[in-house]
Amino acid sequence: MKDTDESIELSKRMIQTGELCGKTTTAFITRMDHPIGNAVGNWLEVLECINVMKNGKGPKDLVNLCLVQAAQMLIQCGAVPSGTLKEGIIMARENLSNGKAYGKFREMVVSQGGDLRCIDKPEDYPRAKFKADVIAASKGFISDINALEIGHIGVMIGAGRNCSEDAIDATAGIWFHRKVGDRVEASDVIATVYTEREETLNSAADS
């Protein structure tokens, strides 16, 4: 949603829907004008989450958002004695740092019939055949990374759909090596684009 008022209205409707189904429901209105974390694309985002859970740390914006959402879920299931978001975040952070979050994720993969080899050795997961780096043309600072435009590029390279019948390429996506506010020098790699659609590579990297 581009408009804050519309976002608030949507969140109220979603909460109402959940409550009518007998579920305690909460909605967070968060920024999405820049990509969250470093990864865009199905497998790349999973890979980033695996790395965060294994290491207990990662991109600040991604980790902070996940901790807040996890904290709220802990509150709603009655696991936070004080019932405060602050204590819930402390609990979530502890379980991220001590490896319990990663352990629970592995259990979830098994329960859904997934292949743990992809989780334990993600480097063995198939990679996109083609990739291209986005290079800084000059030194300076990154002032903006437009999430909507990145979404359009994701569709172009196969990471998203134009219509429901379109196939998704799990290996397609973009990995950002720099984020908004970062300083770059000329010839620094800002991002890497991955795809099976070689014909889209140059257009995507130049966008």
Characterize the structure shown:
With 207 residues, the chain is an alpha+beta fold. Helix content is 47%, strand content 11%. The protein is built from eight helices and six strands. The chain has helices at 4-20, 42-55, 60-76, 85-97, 100-111, 116-120, 147-157, 198-206, and strands at residues 39-40, 130-135, 140-141, 173-176, 183-184, 189-195. The strands form two sheets. A four-stranded antiparallel sheet has the order 1-4-6-2, sandwiched between helices. It has a two-stranded antiparallel sheet with strand order 3-5. Helix 3 (60-76) crosses helix 4 (85-97). The chain is globular and about 50 Å long.
Low-confidence stretches: none
Question: What's the total count of β strands?
Answer: 6
| Spatial strand order of the main sheet | 1-4-6-2
Helical proportion, percent range: 40-55%
Strand proportion, as a percent range, falls in 5-15%
- Major sheet, described briefly? 4 strands, antiparallel
Ends apart, CA distance between termini: 23 Å
